[in-house]
């Protein structure tokens, strides 16, 4: 293999974002992927001998709709249609009750009754400063934000979230907000979970919580197409086991610190190795892909219009189950996220069959079969669901790592999301992407700003490497219309 400027290990959204950015700077880029297809957490497949497409990992994309990387890359202009449900997320409660977050903020506030005004005061200003808030939270947080209102709005709100659930007094509003905070997959309440609740919570009323028409794989395909059209190449089906395999001036690792330790061995200085070993992994996901014969029969029919459904019960119940998972205790009623993609994208139902995507938050390394666990949880709020199931496939937390080495013990965040590990991810350093090995960078969700499909870890790592290794200070343009506008200088 001939020497290239940049070798990228891993083709998840961050690896591809790094690859695209560096290819756009005119460098030769080669991506190495252990799986048979590109995309990492964006991959999907047909299962159960049917033509129905299942998202194997990520399904819903508030971050891809809003992040600076994807705003620049412009998915829509590449034919990726982000379908935005009018109800971003719903949270069923006992007795057929439910709390609902509409895309429309005013409608959400109306529905929340006595807490409506408080929801408006919480989310309204964030929605008005949405790009600034998003860019601040999805940054490396090592420079002044462009919109100074963002930290000023977020600071007091995060504190209030920590102390008193942002003042929400009724159970539906408290449960609704706690369900969004649970996306942090960590201790509740916490600063990190508060920041995630405000980021995802306000995005529901701004750019929305969309699903890509046809599945998440469309995003990976758009990134890979752009890479190839700028001279990049992708090699699938081979796991890189040693950095020495790669003949490149710069190596970008879309991997965890644990993999970096394995790939580099004792070439890394002792101190850095010790720091990487201190990086810890959080609770895990256990997922079920269902093939069903009809839409989920939610007891509250309004829940059936939601893109995403959170099954966590009351605020107190969600706090208990999430904190138990952090402590390594797996309960019988875990927090579960459910998506029936055909609600938002009717084309996902084929011949009267449709996919249902659901995963539970469980302790790291939990070996339980999630099928009965998750089926029971959905049945509780949608009696009769089990009768609609034609086939199901459970992936316990312990199996995720063999599917994707970036999910140690089933931690799909590639590292616990705590306050310290959000900023000092993976180690305390001004430039968290650069490793002590010359030309070797980390660019995965184990670096700031952390998990989700936003491409920002790869984008920021690529910019750091372009500056330091190639003296490229002009940020390459990423849009599909090459040469149409000025590049940015930083
Ligand atoms: C069940 C589940 C549901 C999720 N739901 C959502 C969601 O709805 N919305 C959302 O925004 N996010 C979601 N996520 C999280 C999201 O998928 C990840 O945060 C995101 O994919 C991280 O991107 P990444 O590029 O850092 O890593 P990944 O997407 O994990 O990609 C890493 C890639 O590197 C490859 N790789 C690793 N090591 C090597 C090696 N040594 N050699 C070759 N290849 C290697 C892996 O095979 C993989 O393809 C979900 C994740 C899971 C698992």
Automatic annotation (TrEMBL):
InterPro entries reported in the protein's UniProt record: FAD/NAD-bd_sf
Coiled coil: none
Gene3D superfamilies linked: FAD/NAD(P)-binding domain
Protein name: Dehydrogenase
Source organism: Micromonospora inaquosa
């Amino acid at each position: 293999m001939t020497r290239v400027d940049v070798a990228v290990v891993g083709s998840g959204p961050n690896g591809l974002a790094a690859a695209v950015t560096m290819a756009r700077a005119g460098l030769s880029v080669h991506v190495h992927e252990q799986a048979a297809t590109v995309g990492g957490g964006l991959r999907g497949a047909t299962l159960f001998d049917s033509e129905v497409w299942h998202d194997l990992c990520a399904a819903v994309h508030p971050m891809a709709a809003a992040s600076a990387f994807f705003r620049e890359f412009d998915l829509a202009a590449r034919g990726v249609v982000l379908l935005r449900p009018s109800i971003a997320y719903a949270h069923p409660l006992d007795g057929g009750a439910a709390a609902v977050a509409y895309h429309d903020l005013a409608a959400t506030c109306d529905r929340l009754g006595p807490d409506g005004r408080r929801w408006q005061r919480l989310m309204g200003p964030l929605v008005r400063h949405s790009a600034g808030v998003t860019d601040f939270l999805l940054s490396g947080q090592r420079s002044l934000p462009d919109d100074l209102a963002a930290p000023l709005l977020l600071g007091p709100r995060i504190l209030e979230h920590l102390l008193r659930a942002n003042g929400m007094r009724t159970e539906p509003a408290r449960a609704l907000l706690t369900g969004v905070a649970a996306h942090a997959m960590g201790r509740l309440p916490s600063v990190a979970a508060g920041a995630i609740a405000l980021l995802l919570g306000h995005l529901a009323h701004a750019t929305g919580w969309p699903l890509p028409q046809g599945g998440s794989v469309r995003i990976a395909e758009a990134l890979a197409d752009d890479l190839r059209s700028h001279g990049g190449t992708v090699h699938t089906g081979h796991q890189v086991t040693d950095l020495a395999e790669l003949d490149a001036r710069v190596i970008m690792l879309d991997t965890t610190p644990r993999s970096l330790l394995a790939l580099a061995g004792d070439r890394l200085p002792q101190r850095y190795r010790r720091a990487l070993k201190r990086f810890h992994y959080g609770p895990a996901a256990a997922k079920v892909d269902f093939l069903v014969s009809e839409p989920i029969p939610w007891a509250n029919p309004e829940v059936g219009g939601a893109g995403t459904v959170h099954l966590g019960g009351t605020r107190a119940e969600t706090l208990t189950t999430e904190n138990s998972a952090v402590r390594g205790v797996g309960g019988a009623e875990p927090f579960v996220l459910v998506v029936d993609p055909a609600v938002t994208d009717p084309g996902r139902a084929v011949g009267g069959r449709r996919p249902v995507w659901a995963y539970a938050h469980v302790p790291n390394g939990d070996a339980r079969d999630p099928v009965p666990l998750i089926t029971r949880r959905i049945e509780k709020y949608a009696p009769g669901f089990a009768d609609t199931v034609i086939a199901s496939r459970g992936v316990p937390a312990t199996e995720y790592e063999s599917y994707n080495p970036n999910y140690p013990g089933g931690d799909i965040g590639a590292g616990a999301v705590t306050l310290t590990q959000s900023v000092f991810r993976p180690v305390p350093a001004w430039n968290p992407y650069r490793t002590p090995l010359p030309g070797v960078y980390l660019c995965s969700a184990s670096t700031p700003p952390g998990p989700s499909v936003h491409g920002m870890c790869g984008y920021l790592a690529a910019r750091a490497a372009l500056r330091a290794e190639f003296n490229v200070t002009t940020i390459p343009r990423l849009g599909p219309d090459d040469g149409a506008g000025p590049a940015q200088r930083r």
